[in-house]
Amino acid sequence: MKTAAPRHHVIVGSGVAGAQAARTLRAREPEARISMLTLASLPFYNRYDLPQVFRGRQDWHQFLVDPPEYYTENRIELRRCTQVANVDSQRKVITLGHNEEMHYDTLVVASGGRSYLPEELSEFRHLLDGFGSYEQAMVVRRKVPEGGTVMLLGGDMIGLDLARTLLDTGHKVVLVTDEHTFWPHQVTDDEKKELLTVLERMGVEIIAGDCEGGIDAIQEGAKGLPARRVIFGGGRDRYADVIMPFYGLHPSVEFMLGSGVDIERGLLVKKSLRTTNDAIWAAGDVCQIWSDEEKRYRFYYGWKNVRAMGELAARNITGEDEAFEPTQDESLHIHDGVTIHSPFWEYA
Amino acid sequence: MSAVPESIEARRETPSVAYSEDPRDVDWVGKNIPCQTACPAGTNIPAYIRAIAEGRHGEAYEINREANVLPGVLGRICSRPCESACRHGWPGNGEPVAICHLKRSAADYKHAGHRITERLYAPTAKRVAIVGAGPAGVAAAHDLSVLGHDVTIFEREAGSGGMLRYGIPEFRLPRDILDFELHNALRLGVELRLSAGVGKEPGETPVSALLRDYDCVLLAAGCMAPLPLPLEGDWKGKDPADVCKDVVHGLPFLMALHRGETRKVRRRVAVVGAGFTALDCARVAVRLGAEEVTIHIRTAEEYIPVPKEEIFEAKREGIRIKGLRTPVGVVLDEKGRMKGIKFVQNRLGGWREGGRRLAIPIEGSEFVDPCDTMLIAIGQKTVNDFLDVKVELDRWQNVRTGEAGMTSVKGLFAAGDFVTGPTTVIEAIGRGRKAAAQIDTWLMGHPRRKKVVRIHPVAQPLRERAFDFIGRQEMPTAALHDRVHSGTLEVETGFDQPHTGEESKRCYLCNLRYQIDVDRCIYCRACIEVAPRACIKLVSGVEVLENGTYGKLTEAKEWNQVGAIWIDNNECIRCGACFKACPVNCISITRNEFAEVDIA
């Protein structure tokens, strides 16, 4: 009797969601072929730990969640530095950046989100430093001198997590606030005021972006001064050694445009995490899930949610029919009036 | 930078040009030059880009003008269906060529006083009246005047150009460019009567009078009446613009500004709509001093029928786009001023006619988004109550035209958005030109021109493989601060000459047809080995369709099944590698393109 060939599951992305999807798929479907495609040069590593580069942890091996042999042992074909150019959902074929075509039976899109840079700042991109990857973290580490100044624009929770480490390690932190400050937490104006006061007590210098007339320009610093200069609309300026945008995440879905899958900002998925194409699933920061309570499609951030999504997508691909339930506390707390506690900072 | 292979000598040495009406040749051009096929005006894009690559900007401009009389205008504001179809943008090939920006470069870098190519026909003494000096009317007027007819345009507004002048802001389309090209299009004896309304009101000329005084009349009055916003509940059937002064329809708002009238917006502006007009309204609002401008759309940004670069520039100016929402009502304060818009959340549905996504409202998901000015830009409809002759209408209440472009009234033709409803400028130009050809046929009693394929041998490949790795050049733009504060400063500043040259090299020149002479081929596979794509195939047969054109290739799996070696021009990126590798010179190249010739 002829048996069906093992299915080929392709996972785009090697972050928390993608890695968990691969782990679960392997456990539930031992014979399946699993390919994981990622733009990253390293296998799955802990991005939440990246601020540790300022505490002397700089060897990339120390950031890996699974040792390199994990992928071989679990027959997960990990393809690093691999760009997905587009997805043809009719033919179930992925075209890679180097023109190779890869067939899939099921596709899990877990490409995550990249740091969002407001379009009005795009012309200054070359003067800004990101913190989304190990390589970027190391570049920032090299650029910031001992006791140097780092300016955070926007100030989402990823940036504020870095700010805590920078303060601990003797650096100066300047925060230029705007509507993205404390993203993805939703805070009221009063809460925001209180939270900013706590940040000031922690040692962060706060510049209210709106009051200063927004950012007018970013320039190279002059000789003898820090490397970057920000000029505000009201005329004030401020120097820093490094300027880093932290305006939340922008889902990485460009390669899915034209695939026939519904997209608004992220991939629109049902609670089962299935997209509008039966063979394509999404997990993590890339998907917008319908919320019955809020009557809208929304993103669910935080590693607990993201990992749960990776697991759920894999379970549903392998025969379950379960709905996503958020597992992450989304509230922001102040402890003793001096420290901020965010569940987005907890990683286990 | 690699140099463009010198082809001028090659062109001089090429043997005679052939003209073909063979369906296989006609079919090849239709299927293999996707940009030209996608262009509603049929612009010969590969030819003009090649001319740019060779530094012949004036010639590139004239190649454009053969299809589109306003290249400098369209090079700035075209909706670019050609770029969506460009082979360079197909999966695995990278990004489409910046065709539109190159069109602008041809206009920017042509020499002042370059020679214009107009193949004039002898005067016919036939008189044609055109109602409307918008893109369709101007394109038709130009072609009819070239064909020897006496043309008079009646325009209601004080300036010509229609939507170009009154709908599109100056920061996208400088008025000196528009004036120059309109003048150029109409200077062959077209009489332009401005502030000359056609209609039933006192002081206006009735259509019946035009039909009496002219041999025929072309209605090209455009599509300028705003569509009402369908609301629910208490607002059902009401136009909030009639009730609240903070609610304004987008197109009349833009038209008033462009007539020189003053318009103001308040601090938080909400624009409802997803097309060029909505985007223009939002960007104008920023320039009028609005602090927060949001465009609310029913579906998602991916489906907005506006080039991505335009959306990006709008966002750079601080405009935000919020998707998956349909307005169902407005919220006013106790003084009757705008307080917010009530929306319902949508999910994406199937596809509408014309390739647009459907939005399905989700019951019980209503919410209010605050704003204090609302601009409605959800589309336009035609107005035909100015007609004093009874004309058959279609189900959308647009004038119905027959195969020959004529309405139900003898001698009364119609074209452009007035017939189709709102489309794009390039579509209106294409339809205006088509109407001109139909009118000429009717006036003269027979067609005088026909479309054929001009086949021109090419001695050597015109591209290098290295060109395939040049990235799409980015359009430079004016500084944010300057553009917002000026109000009229052109945002896109145009490619400089080096960037124009680099971008022009990216074009695959899809009008080049590579063919293998199977009688001379020795099946050495050298061409297959060097081909960067699966574009050269060993085939056992080629399907021949009923009309004589070629259909699908049947690829051979075994050597003994090989009947021919075939270049799949659909896959071919015209890199020339096969031509250079062939040891027996059995690969030929021809430039195949549509041309119009006189019917003897």
By secondary-structure content and strand pairing, the structural class of chain A works out as alpha/beta
Helical percent range of chain B?
Answer: 25-40%
Determine the CATH superfamily of the domain at 127-223 and 382-447 in chain B: FAD/NAD(P)-binding domain
- Biggest beta sheet summary of chain A: 5 strands, parallel
What Rg of chain B is obtained from the alpha carbons, in whole angstroms?
A: 26 Å
Secondary structure: elements and pairs:
The complex is a heterodimer of chains A (348) and B (600).
Chain A: E1 8-12, H1 16-28, E2 33-37, H2 69-73, E3 76-79, E4 84-88, E5 93-96, E6 101-103, E7 106-109, E8 113-115, H3 134-143, E9 149-154, H4 157-168, E10 172-177, H5 189-202, E11 205-208, E12 215-220, E13 228-232, E14 237-240, E15 242-245, E16 249-251, E17 267-269, E18 280-282, E19 287-291, E20 296-298, H6 303-317, E21 333-335, E22 339-341
Parallel strand pairs in A: 1-2, 1-7, 2-3, 7-18, 9-10, 9-15, 10-11, 17-19
Antiparallel strand pairs in A: 4-5, 5-6, 8-16, 12-13, 13-14, 19-20, 21-22
Helix pairs in contact in A: 1-6
Chain B: H1 8-13, E1 18-20, H2 23-32, H3 34-38, H4 45-53, H5 57-67, H6 71-77, H7 81-85, H8 99-109, E2 127-131, H9 135-146, E3 150-154, H10 163-166, H11 175-186, E4 191-193, H12 207-213, E5 216-219, E6 225-226, H13 240-243, E7 247-249, H14 250-258, E8 268-272, H15 276-287, E9 292-296, H16 308-316, E10 320-322, E11 325-332, E12 338-351, E13 357-370, E14 373-376, E15 380-381, E16 412-414, H17 417-420, H18 425-444, E17 449-458, H19 480-486, H20 497-505, E18 512-516, H21 526-530, E19 536-544, E20 550-555, E21 564-567, H22 577-581, E22 587-598
Helix pairs in contact in B: 4-5, 4-8, 4-20, 5-8, 6-8, 8-20, 9-18, 14-15
